[in-house]
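Dear colleagues,

As part of the handover before I leave the project, I'm documenting each prediction I ran so the next person doesn't have to rerun anything. This entry is a single chain, and its sequence is reproduced below.
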Amino acid sequence: MEPQGFIAFAEHRAARLSLGLTIAACDHDRCRLTLSGPEALIDAFEMAVSLGPYDSIVLDVSRFQTDEDLPAKAAS
């Protein structure tokens, strides 16, 4: 995955859906994003990143309501 390409894609999709987006971390293996907005639009964002961008393959998406819900290894 190209982090800059994925970040640009995520920022564009979040803006199109009027979602708040914070990128906590992003490297060649994974990205951690925090979204705010209506649940239906977050669902649409999840679908969009699952299908693209063309230079990144999204194998898995994990969703948590808050940071307190994150597994211990993902929170660090």
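The CA atoms of residues 52 and 58 lie 8 Å apart. Residues 3-75 form one domain.

All the best with the project,
I.
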